[in-house]
């Protein structure tokens, strides 16, 4: 429910009066970068919905390279956030008493999903890391599996580059689809937010049904 409430708040904020393009660019890209970065460290911010919403707004802009800037901003922020969280996790592993960051990562990775992630990581390596960002709820268990397998930060970073690029591209496509369906940006934002929330909630609903 927290994700749904956050996404609803995002939609309500975006559907208010739309500022001029210059103001959108001056405020939008830094805000997108900061929120995605925070969302990578503390997974309570609906980062997928943010990227899709930003893509909708960029789709309706006349400024050149607007879509490319959304892609670069989102993927770079996601990569830096993941890299920082992984570094904090490795630091916690080397510490005798652990760390609150490492405990936070462990608390978000149920034992069953962690064991699945460790098995897949052992079999398929970096490919699992790349796909983990595209599967709702898959990023943290795979990251913890990489930590437990003692992957060096450099190896994790190499795989995470492709993961963040694929993630940003996927949610940007959702935004483009939403933006192309309606003439007004706010209508496309609502569609994009609903789609991203539905995608995020679907695996959890399947697990509860089972």
UniProtKB/TrEMBL annotation:
Top-level taxon of origin: Bacteria
Domain VTT: 53-175
Subcellular location: Cell membrane
CC per GO annotation: plasma membrane
Transmembrane segments annotated in the record for this chain: 33-59, 66-88, 161-182, 188-206
Keywords: Cell membrane, Membrane, Transmembrane, Transmembrane helix
Membrane topology qualifier: Multi-pass membrane protein
Primary location: membrane
One Pfam family hit: VTT_dom
Family membership: Belongs to the DedA family.
Protein name as annotated: Membrane protein
Organism whose genome encodes this protein: Streptomyces griseofuscus
Lineage per the UniProt record: Bacteria, Bacillati, Actinomycetota, Actinomycetes, Kitasatosporales
